[in-house]
Automatic annotation (TrEMBL):
Organism: Aedes aegypti
Cofactor remark: Binds 1 zinc ion per subunit.
Protein name: Geranylgeranyl transferase type-2 subunit beta
Cofactor: Zn(2+)
Sorted UniProt keywords: Metal-binding, Phosphoprotein, Prenyltransferase, Repeat, Transferase, Zinc
Gene that encodes it: 5570069
Family, similarity comment: Belongs to the protein prenyltransferase subunit beta family.
Length: 332
């Protein structure tokens, strides 16, 4: 019996990485402060900067954006009361943007520009009795926030401010019978959340708690005939899932369980030949989020024009080395 597949066709795709176009696409992003898209994305400005800066650094073009402007912006976004960092001046701090800010400052090698003790206190204040984390003071719980917490704390070298054992137990309580993870206990497995939980276990040196065979099987079933990867059964392929799925498989030492060649073809087909940048799938409008995750996935696949990316942090490997952070990877 054949199951209907949600997929796309990619007949006349660009076959090469449009390197220079992507550099221009990212470097010019946000130059026009009146641009509609720029104004509409204020609520995720900090992450937008992280996606752009990381993408440029992976292409050896970090000097294409103004470092001082970005660092000054981050400093203005740290909340003097809670210590957390917001997406944009005047917004409430959130653990997602706090991670983005810390990642950018690590890339620029200037963590001392912000108060990292206050960040440690902020992250610790978000941990709950069951070990889970709120994303902000409004109290939503999600395994994404558990990942953000340990990623931030390992980058600023303050892992001891939280109850790590409880944090690990909470993440493991979100593991499902298919080997995957959801956003909270008993929530459906989803590739983005699997990446967060596998990344969490990589940072906390707990990868032995995974059922790697089962989970890697579920992940490689995400590859569709077009070569693209989806995030859940029956969904369309999407470039950002190339990153979530591939990074998880890489951490588990099982990158070779999917067809790299077909995936590369799919990712290259999502490039915009005119403006540069990657879209979620062939023919759609590019955006900075899918551009970073397209480049990141190509780096994991070994593209020689890009710097090596760290699969746990989605940051250049040389930055992770310089921070002396050692997320674990399974080698078979
Ligand atoms: Zn996507």
């Amino acid at each position: 019996m054949a199951f209907p597949t949600n997929d796309v066709s990619i007949s006349d795709e660009p076959k090469e990485l449009l390197f220079d176009k992507h550099v221009e696409y990212i470097a010019n992003h946000g130059n026009d402060k009146n641009d509609y898209e720029y104004c509409m994305t204020e609520f995720l400005r900090m992450s937008g900067i992280y996606w752009g800066v990381t993408g440029l650094d992976l292409m050896y073009q970090l000097d294409r954006v103004n470092r001082q402007e970005i660092v000054d912006f981050i400093k203005k976004c740290q909340c003097p009361t809670s210590g957390g960092i917001s997406a944009c001046e005047g917004h409430d701090p959130h653990i997602l943007y706090t991670l983005s800010a810390v990642q950018i400052l690590c890339i620029y090698d200037c963590l001392e520009e912000i108060d990292t003790d206050a960040i440690g206190r902020y992250v610790s204040s978000l941990q709950q009795l069951d070990g889970s984390f709120f994303g902000d003071k409004w109290g939503e719980v999600d395994t994404r926030f558990s990942f953000c917490a340990v990623a931030i704390l390992s980058l600023i070298n303050k892992m001891d401010v939280i109850d790590l054992e409880k944090a690990v137990n909470f993440v493991m309580s979100c593991c499902n019978s298919d080997g995957g993870f959801g956003s909270k206990p008993n929530a459906e497995s989803h590739a983005g959340l699997i990446y967060c939980c596998v990344g969490f276990l990589s940072i906390t040196d707990q990868l032995h708690r995974l059922d790697c065979e089962k989970l890697a099987w579920w992940l490689c079933e995400r590859q569709l005939p077009s070569g693209g990867l989806n995030g859940r059964p029956e969904k369309l392929p999407d470039v950002c899932y190339s990153w979530w799925v591939l990074a998880s498989l890489t951490i588990m030492g099982r990158l070779h369980w999917i067809s790299a060649e077909k995936l590369q073809k799919f990712i290259l087909s999502c490039q915009d030949v005119e403006t540069g940048g990657f879209s979620d799938r062939t023919g759609n409008m590019p955006d900075i989020f899918h551009t970073l995750f397209g480049l990141g996935a190509l780096s994991l696949l070994g593209d020689k024009r890009l710097r090596k990316v760290n699969p746990t942090f989605c940051m250049p490997q040389y930055v992770i080395d310089r921070c002396n952070v050692k997320p674990k990877i399974i080698t078979l």
